[in-house]
Amino acid sequence: MRNTDRNMRLQKYLAHAGLCSRRKAEEHILDGRVKVNNQIVTELGTKIDLEKDKVFFNNKAVILKQESPKIYIALNKPVGYVSSCSRQNSKIVLDLINVDERVYPVGRLDKDSNGLLLLTNDGDLHNKLSHPSFNHEKEYVVTTVYPISETGLKNMAQGIVIDNVITRKAKVKRLSKSKFNIVLKQGKNRQIRKMVGEIGNKVDTLKRIRIANINLGNLEEGKWRYLTHKEIERLLQKNVVP
After folding, report:
1. Which residues partner with 183 through β-bridges?
2. Among residues of the chain, what percentage have pLDDT more than 70?
3. How much helix, strand and coil, in percent to the nearest 5, is found in the chain?
4. What are the tens digits of pLDDT across the range 24-58?
């Protein structure tokens, strides 16, 4: 694994080969599931020689295909589907996508939630959308089991401590006595559900309707569409607003 111009970071190689996202590739490396030339590699940032080194995942060769066209998809995820490429006794979002290229979800939308989910085979876009510096907004419509108070809405807008960390300020707007709209610039695990729990309520339904400049619109549940060139260009910019 010499340091040459033909080198590529191992996690980038796995992502470009269509195995998974770069972040998931890092997890696989740390878990000892990746080999280079039949030797397990667990150090992130390891570089491989594209012309000489052979990469294996779970002892199966991972081949870097010729540069395939970049695919960008918007899906209206139904409740009951997991935002994962790995099937673990659950229905996964890839069951809903019918394309030849291997794509993977950008971020997560939990099994009990529905709405907009982006999928792509572009590892660079995945990293950009995941990095906090890009400040991409995510917008949701939430209904609660019980009527929600003005104080509760205000507390969520100002920030609430969950998992020992205070959430970033959010835009919150009441839609009815038990429904509100919320716009976040972060995506902690089950963040909205935890925030609602902290104010003494429970989420009944949670639907994501926008990511940055991409709107769910009238896309039917369980259906998907390709993003337009204009949508993709704007999505790659920093600080995108609708």
Report:
1. 139, 171
2. 90
3. 25, 30, 45
4. 889 999 999 999 998 999 999 899 988 889 999 99
In the DSSP assignment, the letter for residue 81 is E
**Cα–Cα nearest to 37, from 51, 26, 22:** 51
CA distances from 90 to 79, 82, 85, 148, 181 (A): 12, 7, 11, 32, 29
Q: How far apart are CA 160 and CA 169, in angstroms?
A: 9
Q: What is the pLDDT of residues 66-120, one digit of tens each?
A: 666 889 999 999 999 998 776 666 789 989 998 878 888 888 899 999 999 999 9
**Sign of torsion over alpha carbons 53, 55, 61, 64:** negative
Question: Closest by alpha carbon to 206, among 187, 192, 224?
Answer: 192
How far apart, in whole angstroms, are the C-alpha atoms of residue 42 and residue 24? 13
Q: Name the token pair of 70.
A: 């970049």
CB 174 within 8 A of CB 153: yes
- Cβ 32 vs Cβ 40: under 8 Å: yes
Q: Which pair of structure tokens corresponds to residue 132?
A: 């906090």
Predicted confidence at residue 19, as pLDDT, reads: 82
* Average confidence (pLDDT) over 205-234: 95
Residue of 5, 49, 53, 110 marked active site: 110
* 110 part of the active site: yes
CB 208 within 8 A of CB 139: yes
